[in-house]
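Journal club prep, notes for RB
We'll compare a predicted complex against what the paper describes. Inputs for the pyridoxal-5'-phosphate case:
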Amino acid sequence: MKGYWWLYKGFEIRQNEAGQSKVFFKNYSADLESIARDNLTPVYVYNGDHIKEKVAIVRRAFDTYYDGDVAVNFAMKASHVPHVVRLLGQEGCGVDAASPNEARLGLRLGIHAERVMFTGTSVSNADIKELVSMGVRINIDSFSQLRRLVDLAERGELSCSPLPLSIRLNPDVGAITGQDFITAGARNTQGVPIKFGIEPEKILEVFEYARKNDLLVDTLHFHIGSGWLGIGIEAFRQALSNGLRVYRRLLESGFPLTRLDVGGGPGVRMEEKSESFPWDEYAKVIDVSLKEANIKLELLILEPGGGLVSDACVLLTTVNTVEKKYGIEHVFVDSGMGTFPSIRLDHRWCEFVNVSHPNGDIKEYAVDGNVCETGDTFTYNKLRPLPEVREGDVLALLDTGGYSLAQSFNYCLRGRAHVVLREGDYLVNCTRGVENLDEVMSRFTPVTSYTNLI
Ligand SMILES: Cc1ncc(COP(=O)(O)O)c(C=O)c1O
């Protein structure tokens, strides 16, 4: 079997007991095809060892190239599988929560409130009250949110005093990434107005309002967007420089800032032609920029999401049909846009491995899903070269641990996929299996009365 480019993501190829070459997670006894056969597909398989390795890579980079304390808050929107969040908590990560429920889940999993920060948009008064009552830190996204927090406090509607706040700055420069993943600047490149954070010209006013109302703000936050690689470092450096200019101005105006949160965004390599995220360079850029700005932080906060979990997971899916249509070889699998919404939302690149027959002759395929929509395809407008695929083969879709599973849905009543986590020598069931009809329908009340029907 040839040396595939993705092997470094925690895989190895070795012989199974029958002497066949198979794809394994490193140091794990069962190969991916047998995991699929034992667990029924579609099944997401997280590799806990690789998640730990990703956290270690981040920490090594900052231990080596950054001079100061760093907190790593996992962006739970990337994956709310509790077993995964718990594992990250055990590795010392806090949580970046995008909803009160994410904050609550973090607390339930044993992550201390001081290490949970909420950053969200469209934050209602009910959300504010709930977040304050949980004792988690709030990252203010709009002036309105801050005003309403003050109003609620004045009306005695908060159960306790809020923790020191963070304020989210829009640093003017967004990430170099897909349209929908740019979160800074006035508009994205397609003209969509950006809804996040407070623009630099208004930020002083917001800080002053907080001070006037006796609220301590100790953190400045920004996030430029998601899924960028080394090529995005220059945009990040510019955003950081804008952020640090604002930080310095605030210090000079007497605001006692001690912490900077640079958000998330570092992506993972999903194609052979791209490169891995340069964590060392990222740490150096932050260190050098802070020194140039003459700012010494008490704490630097990172909020990686996809970068910690995406390439630590495969989606295993079984081929049920192989058929030529208009001269194109189509492979149909038992998952689709419900199981893996990214194929519809951002048409992301899907790197498949034929884990049943990794050594066959290479052919080109369209890989299609089990939902009745033209866009329900994993290969969109570019066919994939794959070792010859037969009906019954298992395919592994790489880099699936971030976002897609969290966004999955059960359109056409195709149940959501099963999820398992490999921890050391064990495979832990994170769900009860592929969702069945009763589970899908469990949120609806029973249909008991047809009195209005003729
Ligand atoms: C505020 C904030 N922090 C962190 C993240 C995580 O981004 P990523 O998964 O690209 O690291 C996001 C993603 O949307 C975000 O909005």
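Talking point for the session: The first helix runs from residue 32 to 39.
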